[in-house]
Amino acid sequence: MLTDFDYTLLPENYTLCLHDACPRAKECLRRAIAEGVPAAHTSIRVFSPAAARQMAVAGCMYFRPIRKVRYARGIETVLKQFEKLPYREARMARATLYGFFGRNMFYRIRHGERFVFPEEQEKIAALFRRLGLKEEPQFDEYIERYDLR
């Protein structure tokens, strides 16, 4: 059971697992979350017992390890770092970042409505290296949370 998990952050459609006999139950995030669901959550979404038994034997494709990751929130600081570049390169860098995410997602990320995942942070760091920026990208805020993806 996870004692530091915030159940208010659990998406309604996130499927949990109640299969005790699974060989990976002790290291599965879905199982650990299911063990500690508070009484305030009167209903949860779970795998059917038959499906859970079958997945445990075949190798569960829904398995999630119990681990926290560092998410970033907001990219205003990253955009300010681009200002150290010559104007044309700064515009190209911003356009590249815009292209990574697409219009809607770019603005949601920019305003902190959606986190920047670790693999996306690495993609942005690679862009910094390609542009010749010696520093690492600095995001507006960093948050550690369990990886529910």
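Above is the first protein from milestone M3; the second protein from the same milestone is given next.
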Amino acid sequence: MCHYCGCREIPLIKEFIAEHERVTDAAGDAQRALAVGDVERARELVAYMAGELETHWRGEEEGLFAVMRRDPEYAAYIDVLMVEHQDHGVRLLALDLATAEGRAEFDGLVRELHQHISREEDGLFPASLTALSGDEWNFSMAAWREARPGA
């Protein structure tokens, strides 16, 4: 993520970035578990990733994305991100980490997740600084909270 625009200081964006980091940390841990043959640990980490991503994506899509999609300048960009959410979620749950093909699919999915996160953190999140009003930030934060009760 860039460090020049200041979006990292926005509480909601900070939360989204922290969620990204938890998922990518778990992905790296799963890849290391697979490298030493610990398929069961990798499965646990992938299940954690799937749960974390499900709530993360819901918070993004029902809040920040919903608000920013109202502007035609961002709609197509966000539509692609949302399709990727769906695709990544389905593929993550379908992985068979006990096979070489499943492990290769997971490695590819992790690369795609990193690219996806980069498009959010380096593109959409900085754009949100100028695109959203105070009420829209409040709406977005409320949607994130609803997706993560108790957060």
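Note on the second protein: The longest helix spans residues 100-131.
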